[in-house]
Amino acid sequence: MEWTHLPGRADYAATLAAMEERVARIAAGDAPEAVWLLEHPPLYTAGTSADPQDLVAPDRFPVFAAGRGGQYTYHGPGQRVAYVMLDLGARGRDVRKFVCALEGWVIATLAEFGVRGERREGRVGVWVARPDLPPTATGAVREDKIAAIGVKLRRWISFHGISINVEPDLAHFDGIVPCGIRDHGVTSLVDLGLPVTMADVDAALMATFPDHFPKAAR
Prior knowledge:
Structural class: alpha/beta
Shape: globular
Distance between the termini: 13 Å
Number of strands: 11
Strand content: 25-35%
Helix content: 10-25%
Largest sheet: 8 strands, mixed
Radius of gyration: 17 Å
């Protein structure tokens, strides 16, 4: 497994092209599996299920067709993006299990900071209950999204991955309906009152990764 930190604000189109090239090399057996840790400049991405009506402010930031599953999401400074390029052909060829492992990885990472991340049926990503905030219009406890997940496969090699809100400008999410969900908000580790740095999150991601993605049998 090769871990790489991409410096600065990684250009989205260039990073996507580099990821495609790396995936092709992994599929050909010419490169090891990889995880890239990075931040993007402010932008919106549209997954294959994106509804144009969910792009509320189309002129606010650049919009990219991501090619991954899912709907609209935001990337920007203060958000840790982890692009995960794994050989699922050597890991059981189970896409559902892979997505579940990504969720479990995020949940374990959040737990390192005392945050309880949770899955929700019918909602991809990781959520945090907010009993400290006013309830929803239906009286239910509010839940905010803290991490997004979107994947794509080619020749059983995974693309894209996860994003965790560490300290992004949460107002930037207002230009979209994140992942098509209108009834809940977004949060971040710092928004939850935790003085967590990007380096802290990276250390937690790397420490918890092996528990969810054991070494592939090749």
